[in-house]
Fold:
Amino acid sequence: MESLIPDILFTLLGHKSEVLKCIVENDSMFSDDESIIVNSGDRQLLTFFLNLAEEYQKLNTILVSYNRLESIYKESNVSKRGMYFEAFVDGTIIALQSYRKCVTDIEKDLLNNKDNKCLLTEILRKVEQHKPLIVSINNILEQIELSQLHGGQILNLIYEVVTMTFMDDKVQLSLIFKQCLQVLISQLNTFFARGVIFDPHKELFIEPEYSRNTKEFKQFTLLPSLMPSFVPISTASKITRIGDVIKSLQHSHDQLSYINYKDISIELYGQKRDQLFADLLNLENLPMFTKNEFVEVIDKFYNVVDEYMLKASFLNDSISYHMKLVRDFYLLGNGEFYMHFLKKMCSLSLKSEHSLRAIKVAFINTAKDVKIHKSVYNAFSFSSYDNEKNDETTWIKLKVTIETKWPLQFIFTKSVQKNYSKLFTFLSRIKRVQTNLHEIWIEQKSKPYKLNGHTDQLKTKLTFLIDTLYSYLQLDVIEDECFLLLEKLSNASDFQSIKHIHDKFQTNIMRDSFLFMEDVYLGFNRILDMCENYCRYITDITASLNPQYKQCYDELNLLFTKKPNQLVTLLNTIQEIEVTPKPNQFIVRLNYNSWFLQAISIDS
Structure:
């Protein structure tokens, strides 16, 4: 048996030996060879050696060359051969160094001590210690092959194997994991410095999203299928947010460039930059990598970025200035401006179409009339939600956009500005109807003849209803929320708090303005429709001949007189709202001294 030891060692290093195979299979070719006398016990030992050698040979084809890739990845998935698999191969070579050293040490001992006999059982004992590691690596390789794993999926598989493995193999398998982790750390290192993803094989769980039309960068998005289990969704979202901040900051420095790879890490991270990146790179060198340590490092980056954005938000009272623009223009806080602006606009009917150019001209001219600075009115632009290229739009489809300074675009997002546009169109319609009703009252007072009693009562009720609605929205809702907003902003400790405070502010206003209650919202818009037609009917002599306006006038009468009363039904719906007490304040204002509801019931 001693004559077979060179063959055994040769086989253990990944080479095939037909001699050993034939002996184990009891081939007659070797049964008569007197130099090779093998009993059943020796044959069993040789079987153990061959089993171990076969496990190692599966890996050896990869360690020697990357030809194995052709069988692992199908023709259609050639592009999936990436950096993480290469790192897996490199890590495997490092992890198996102890096994190869064990075999070569045995060989050296035999060469240096030719007189000492080496028992096969002793050799087997030494090399069998490495078998669990080799089997584990082969199992990983088989899962990669069967499931066609790619990129972050490979990293995740190795991480889960390492975390579930006993200490004997954990250290060696961690060497493979560290090699794959280095790829991720390298990608994050570039990402956190320049906002760039080096990912030629699409292996990272983050990808950039671009606008279809302009190819302009929009944001970074997550690919959950490539996300390792040690990266929670919240942490992954923080990583993408950091990338979005870097890209937006680069773009704010160079407005003409859509693709900017400038390193802004010194500006963004300041004096903490070197320590942050050192902590990131140190994740590769941890004795035992854990999820908590990874999350902690990402949180450090995120907190520094958040702190920088917080300072930028309050620089030159930027957030206060933008909220004043929101209050004055989106929420009609600048009464003088809107009194003139709405007079320049004709009808704000939902059905009437308006020229965007006419709206812009009226907006700019009004701003100039009331001495508003150019930088203020230039911050607003108008378009249509139906078709941004079309110059015609209905008032309810009007899109009002405000230009923001960095980093406030993360607060005043497209969805946020869409909500403000909806508030603007609703409030401006109410204000316009209120103005028209008051103008009718002034005009009628100046004329020698009076309206008939019924028409005058109808106008009085409409005016009171619209006045009360607008007062409720401006005083009870908007003013209260603005006061709370400014108070909370002064105590904000981070940028996300500012965003949360603002989002809550907008949500509360929309909720208490009935925009989330479709029946109530549509009901008020229907009343506004009828009020607009009523104003035309009263002021335009020819309108009284139009059956459409006459029908609307009759509908208004029914609104107050028909049983069951539509208006009372609407008010009852508001009274039943339990989410917030604010809407009840509208009922209290409307039914002050019980006059309004009593007037309706008398008419009914």
In short: The first strand starts at residue 206 and ends at 210. The longest helix spans residues 453-490. DSSP finds 27 helices and six strands in the chain. Residues 106 and 123 are 7 Å apart (CA to CA).
